[in-house]
Amino acid sequence: MKIICEHCGTNIDLDKDKVCPNCKAPYSKNKDYKEYKERLNKEKDTDIRSKELDNELKEKTKDIMDTSLKTFKTTFTISKIMFVVVGIIILAIMTVIIINVINFNNDFDNSRDDIKNTQELIDSKNKDFDDQYNKMKEELEKQQKEFEEMYGNN
Q1: pLDDT at site 22
Q2: How far is 154 from 149, CA to CA, in rounded Å?
């Protein structure tokens, strides 16, 4: 990244120069440098949040898979099996979407508005995921209760 010295107008290469190579003035208060540092910090925060979302997604997927495996051990009708399969497909699609959004955030040349919009999209997808997860969980609990009422608790 290069910026222009506010004191003498010389180009400063941030990767190799600690001060202006011409007039030796520090650039820590330079507006372009501050924006560059702020963008890097936001990108780091986005990467951290992306990893947190990925871990949450893995945990929730594991919980759903564990619940699904327990449920598959019992006898189901075709419609109940289809419900679970559709739910897993929806989770897979959401996983691909979230991973693509996370990978999109790794582009360091995005503007601040792109980073903000991407974060809002992640929050929206996370809420949608939570809503879908809760619906599936309630349906699976309902099916388990029906099964226990139908066949007893053995």
Answers
A1: 92
A2: 11
Q: What is this structure's pTM?
A: 0.30
Q: What is the pLDDT of residue 141?
A: 93
Number of CB atoms found within 10 A of residue 14's CB: 15
Distances in Å between the alpha carbon of 1 and those of 5, 16, 49, 114?
13, 10, 25, 20
d(CA 68, CA 117): 34
Positions in the chain whose pLDDT score sits under 50: none
Please give the torsion angle defined by the CA atoms of residues 127, 130, 136 and 142, in that order, rounded to the nearest 10 degrees: -110
Block residue for tokens 């941030």? 14
Cβ 19 vs Cβ 5: under 8 Å = no
